[in-house]
Each structure stands twice: as structure tokens, then as C-alpha cells.
Amino acid sequence: MHSQSSMRAVAPLFHLFNHRAAMSNKKELLWASRFNEPFDEGALKFSSSVHVDGKLFREDIQGSIAHATMLGEEGIITAEDSRQICDGLKEIEKEIESGALVPQWEDEDIHTVIENRLKEKIGAVAGKLHSGRSRNDQVATDTRLYMRTKVNELKGALGALMETLVDKAEAYKNSIIFGYTHLQRAQPISAGHYYLAYFNMFKRDRERLNDLMQRVNISPLGAAAFSGSTLPLNAKRSAELLGFDSIFSNSIDAVSDRDILIEFISACSITMMHLSRFCEDIILWSSYEFGYLEISDSFSTGSSIMPQKKNADIAELIRGKTGRVYGDLMAMLTIMKGLPLSYNRDMQEDKPPLFDSAETAIESVTLFNRMLQHTRIKEDRLKELTAKDLSLATEIAEYLVKKDIPFRDAHRITGKIVSWSIENATPLPNITLEKYREFEAAFDESIFTALTPEASITSKKSHGSCSFESVEKQIAEAKELL
Predict the structure, then answer these.
(1) In this predicted model, what pLDDT tens digit does every residue of 288-315 receive, in sequence order?
(2) In terms of domains, do 125 and 246 share one?
(3) How far apart are CA 273 and CA 280, in angstroms?
(4) Which domain holds residue 435?
């Protein structure tokens, strides 16, 4: 039998639908044993998910091999049957990978594709694979295996981005840029401090994924449809074979909930939100009006009509894709919000948002990292702007506080100085001491020492501040973390 099946393996198994009314009868649907009429052609096409869950063929085969191995070890099926099933599944995996086996929509789902092909390869023994297993715990297992891979991929992409941010922070730790509130220039800061702010955001994103993995890496195999099985299944052995940390504690919950998908897509959404904010900065800062930052030509595009244009398209696309991932999260929450226990077919719709959010987040983080590596701060322009800007006004107020003037009074005095500076087009460092003393007699020559961006940054004393010394410490801590 096995040699004959090997010969058949080279022949195409799945053919295009030929629109004959009896077509659905020629495909064995795993659930159809009690039915006397063929499933409606339109209903089959509507309910088919193989074009989506086909992505899970490796996970499905991996889970099936573990299940078959456990069945053989526990004596539920013979060791020889277990071996035939596992060998056949490995061959099918190669067939799908090579393109020799191409699922079509009338195959319903990837689980049906694989089991029907296994039957063609090894005959009736293939029917023993599903002993003690439902498509419910099968799908839940596939999904967790997929998520485990994608969580680790996203963690890896975030780790690489965090390394780039530390490199940028170190390269620009002594460079001075504007810090902003309300999109208005606020105070001068170390550029390294700015990069480390995003480092901390992505660090939390990675921590969320680490925490999520504790809930992802639980095996649902053995829960069957929702109530368990009368067969003496060894759920712990199946979990061990698949590298799960633990097994389900409630069979209904194991197959009917999708918390981990919602949590994962939520984590992806938060990561995309952080990327989007960063992209917004890059888009603004690379514009002609700001001119603080230059993006490499390798990550910019031009205009089909305006030759002078250099657009931050990659940053804009990532910003736009954030909305897609948000939509995936809302889709999952809506799918699950009214479902009674236990399994419902609505849950078939969980795969598109899961796949889309995982792939979008991983690709976005990876590409953003490459783009960020090819950006540079225009230090000469920023040095000129920060030396003359009103962002040093807070230094005047705090200077007066050190002269024992209450902060509210110091704030009021400084506000009047700023108004005079604007009206007379005179930068704060260029105002004469005599003029300063007209506003407050406590001013002396030391005010001019305080009115430089370097002095402003160096004078910061509080924990986690933007001072050059603090940034050095933060860089060291970030390196140790990585």
C-alpha cells in the first residue's frame, strides 16, 4: 500500500471545481457522516476557509504528529499505525511546501485537505488519527502554535529595533534638539534622551509579549469538541511533544475562548501606535519646514509630477497600517462579544485578523528599524535654532526660584520677559542685563550662563531627566537590558 501511495503522491490530487452539481459529493467532508444529501455548493464555498487557514498547514501537521505519537504510546492505536500516520503527514508537509499539493476552496479547510490526502496515501489507517480529537481542539492547538512563533518573531523584531535606538542614543547623546509639548517647542533636550523615550515604549511592548506567552503556551489537545474524551488520552504527553509549558484546566474554555488572540492583537495595536507616533515625528522633522532630520533616499520616494519632492512614504505607510491593526482588534472583539459556550462557527473568522495583525506588526517593526538606521539628525541646523529659541524661558523662571522668588512670581516675570523678547525680536540670550533688571532686580551676570542649551540640559537634576549624565546612565541600563 505504501509504495502505491508514493506513486500517487506525484499526481495532482486537487483539481479545479468543474461546476457540476455533484462536485461536493466527491470531497469527503470530515463532519458529513450522518447526512444523506450533499452540502449545497454555494454554502460550501461560503463556509470554506482553506484559503485562509492554509497558512496553518505546518502547525496542523505538527499537532497531528504529536497526537498520533501520543495515541501510539498510550496503546490507543498500534505503534505501526502511529508510524504510518506520522510518516504520511511528513510527506504531505513536503508536498504542500513544494506546491505538489494545492488545496482548493472545495476542500473546506486545511484539516480536511491533510486528512483526505493522508487517507489516499495510507488508506483506512488515516481514519485513526482523529481518535479522541475534534477539529475544535485541533484548531485551537494550531492557532497557539502559530501564535507562539509570531510572538517570538515580533519580540525579535522589537529587540533589533531597541538595539538601533540605543545606537542612535549613543551617537546623538551630546546633540541638542527641541523637546515638544502640544507640538510647540518646549525645552532643549539631548537627542539621546528622545531616542531612549521610544526605547522604553518598545521595551514595554516586548514585556507585554513575554507576559502573553505564559497564556499562549498552553496545550488544548485532549479537550476534544469541548467535553473531553472517553479514550485514555495523555494530554501532558501531547503538550510535551509540542513544547507547551502546560495543559488546559477546563476543556470548555480550552476550545471556546479566544482571549490570547485578542490580547496578542491588542499588543500588536499598542506596538503599532508607538511606531505611528515615531513615524509622525519623522514625517514632520524631515519636512522642509522643520528640517531637523534627513531620511536616506533608500527609504524615500518622489513625485510623478513634482521633481523636487522627497516623501517619507515608508513612515506614512506604517502610520496608515496602524489603522488596519486597530480594525483587526475591533473585529475580534466584535466576533467574540455575543458567543454562547462553547464552540461556534463564528470563530472561523478569527484567523484573518490574527494573521493580518501579526504579519503587519512584524513587517512594520522590521522595516521601520531599517529606515531608522538610515536617518540622520541635522545637527548644524538644530544648533543654530536651539541657541536662539524661546525654549530657554523655563531656565529664567528656575533661575529666579534659586534667588528665593516664589515660582508663580518667577513664572509671571518670565512671561513678561518673553513677551518683550517677541515684540522686540530679541532672543533671550541677547537681552541686556539692564533690561533684565527692569523686570526683576535679582538678575545678575550669572543669568547668561544659564541661557545656553547646554547649560539648560546639564542643570537637570531629577531622576530620568534629559541631562547628559542621566542619558549616559540610561544608555548603560539599556545596554545591560539588551
Answers:
(1) 999 999 999 999 888 889 988 899 999 9
(2) no
(3) 11
(4) 387-481
Domain C-terminal end among 336, 352, 377: 377
Which residues in 260-387 belong to E strands, given as ranges? 293-295, 375-377
Query: Is residue 53 classed exposed, middle or buried when 0-12, 13-18 and 19+ CB atoms within 10 A define those classes?
Result: buried
Q: In the prediction, which pLDDT does 174 show?
A: 95
**Could you read off the pLDDT of 266-288 as tens digits, one per residue?**
999 999 999 999 999 999 999 99
Residue 289 identity: E
Q: Which of 214, 235, 226 shows the shortest CA–CA distance to 253?
A: 226
Q: Interior CA angle at 356 toward 350 and 362, to 5°?
A: 130
CA pair distance 142, 64, nearest whole angstrom: 9
Q: Supply the angle between the helices 351-373 and 313-336 in degrees, to the nearest 10.
A: 160
404: DSSP letter: T
The count of structural domains within the chain is 3
417 and 473 share one domain: yes
Pseudo-torsion of CA 419, 421, 427, 428, nearest 10°? -70
Domain assignment present for 330: yes
Q: Which residues form the catalytic set? A: 182, 303
Task: Answer whether residue 225 is part of any domain.
Answer: yes
How many whole angstroms separate alpha carbon 328 and alpha carbon 355?
9
Q: Cβ contacts of residue 234 below 8 Å, gap of 6+?
A: 70, 73, 74, 222
Is the residue at 293 inside a domain? yes
pLDDT at 230 over 50: yes
The answer, yes or no, to whether residue 11 has pLDDT greater than 70, is no
- Structural contact between residues 197 and 465, judged by C-beta atoms closer than 8 angstroms: no
Mark whether 43 and 83 lie in a shared domain: yes
Contact 119, 126 (CB under 8 A): yes
Handedness of CA 469, 473, 474, 475 (dihedral sign): positive
Q: How far apart are CA 71 and CA 130, in angstroms?
A: 10
* Domain assignment of residue 19, yes or no: no
Residue 163 corresponds to which amino acid? E
The CA-to-CA distance between both ends of the chain, in Å, stands at 55
Q: What is the pTM of this model?
A: 0.87
Q: Which one, of 109, 216, 202, 132, lies nearest residue 164 by Cα? A: 202
Same domain, 225 and 369: yes
CATH number, domain at 328? 1.20.200.10
Residues 166, 197 contacting (CB under 8 angstroms): no
CATH of the domain at 436: 1.10.40.30
